[in-house]
């Protein structure tokens, strides 16, 4: 090949390569977009459940991204991460999601005023420019619109997750799906029956509790409102029925329920509604008793317990859920070795002692001593939770043989304690936190259920029962405030004796874990008992309850998306060391292998094209050419 031919060959090859690159950037990039997720669990890939939620859209959902331009340097990745995720949602929704980015600072005063009226306001953030600290007002908002529904999302509420692009990409699918679910299911409704009490002035002054009566379930209510309408208040006094427009019913720490109130709960289940019951045999932390009973007692290493009578024992036993008096402890989780420093005549010396944190049952698949209980990984409510704890849980077991009398009901224990668990009762209504040394542990031990889930069609506990002097009434009488019988309501419907539609019944062996007051005090309790892990895992129990509510009102897709963020991702030092050795090996070996491989490819290509293994042969002894007749001719140099 002549020099001119070589020039034009390389020129045309380069030109063709340039044109291909231009075409890819201008056209193919619009179709093939996204990112590579190299994590083992695909934590940065849009989950299949998120794609299913987006695929349920029946109309166009518009997303307006009110993002300041420019953003502070540590938030510069936000538009890129948002575009990546929204494009994935757009593909999953069949282009029924449309989005645009708007920099409010470039818009008119009327535009900014409209945003302010919709409570879309900028936030003061700091940044640095040329070594100088500057402060500015920035918008980092998403506004979703679907039909007549509109939802706002302030990305800065993610906290530290918004600063890391990887964490933002991981969190966005769940947050976006929350908005989509709420807009596509505007009628989903949850009702809460709870006993509200007025907080003392000391708690009201903290700003956490209102002046009116409160049940301390603020976080739970906020979590429900994220995917459904604001929870309705359920009042069962005087035989009032549960409203028909409520899909899921939460019975929080029932106390002193009469037979008519239990009947109304039973009838809601028979109508195909979902019922979640949070039981307690004792109330430890309550809003109205906090300053008078709890705080002073805690300083002395004790907790004052108030006995409760939920009145649901026979009704629950009808469905196979047996509830006993007392509370559950477990040897696996109520004893800890506390390491501290103590002042002695010889100075400060390390001291180890055995201390108990009674009635706080911790369930974790594995710890240093082995299993502490069992968490059902197959059930979406608690699957993915690393550890769960409950305080003074009621002794509860599931007798599945009782379910055979129902139409098509099934049951499972979602969360259970270790087999070394046992039942106690507080002496004198007081629980001691500072017991040291050996514990007086009963010999009779077994595993107890902390959460039971029943599903299907049921037979009413009140089926075939009659009431009244002449046995003509089909339901228990209504009771007034003084306990006297009240006349029947004129709007009473016929008693339902078998399920009209499949329903769900969830029973939790504790109610404390979802109380705002309980969670706020978990740090003080952890210091008192010497177990930070057990009290922190109470939030995991609260997450499990939220998963149940999401599943009852919006299906399991949201729970499936949320699950990866709940998995314990503590790094294993052994795995880190293995990866470090692997990286060191391949960094030393891979580069030489690549060079050798390229050399072999070049050598094989030359052999295939010219029949000459190396150009050095031609320089030393001439060149060979193969004639058409197959005879080789040698030419001297």
Verbal overview:
- The protein has 637 residues and is an alpha+beta fold.
- It contains 17 helices and 30 strands.
- Helix 2 (48-55) crosses helix 3 and helix 3 (78-92) packs across helix 5.
- The longest helix has 38 residues, at 573-610.
- The chain is globular, with a radius of gyration of 34 Å.
- Residues 28-33, 566-571 and 617-637 have low confidence and may be disordered.
List the defining traits of the structure above.
alpha+beta; Glutaredoxin; 3 domains; eight-stranded mixed sheet; 17 helices; disordered C terminus
Low-pLDDT windows of residues: 28-33, 566-571, 617-637
Envelope shape: globular
The tally of domains stands at 3
Helix percentage range: 25-40%
Give the amount of beta strand, in percent. Answer: 15-25%
Distance separating the two termini: 19 Å
Q: How many strands appear in the DSSP assignment?
A: 30
Give the averaged pLDDT, no decimals.
82
Major β-sheet, in short?
8 strands, mixed
- Helical region count? 17
State the strand order across the main sheet: 8-7-9-10-28-25-22-19
Q: How much is the radius of gyration in Å?
A: 34 Å
- Decide which structural class fits the backbone: alpha+beta
Secondary-structure blueprint:
Blueprint: H1 3-26, H2 48-55, E1 61-67, H3 78-92, E2 97-102, H4 109-117, E3 123-129, E4 132-138, E5 140-146, E6 149-154, H5 165-184, E7 190-193, H6 201-204, H7 218-225, E8 232-233, E9 248-252, H8 259-270, E10 274-278, E11 282-283, H9 290-299, E12 302-304, E13 306-307, H10 313-318, E14 321-323, E15 327-330, E16 335-344, E17 347-356, E18 360-364, E19 373-375, E20 387-391, E21 396-398, E22 410-417, E23 421-424, E24 430-432, E25 449-456, E26 478-479, E27 485-486, E28 503-508, H11 516-520, H12 522-529, H13 532-536, H14 538-554, H15 557-562, H16 573-610, H17 615-621, E29 623-626, E30 632-635
Parallel strand pairs: 1-2, 7-8, 7-9, 9-10, 10-28
Antiparallel strand pairs: 1-5, 3-4, 5-6, 11-13, 12-24, 14-21, 15-23, 16-17, 18-20, 19-22, 22-25, 25-28, 26-27, 29-30
Helix pairs in contact: 2-3, 3-5
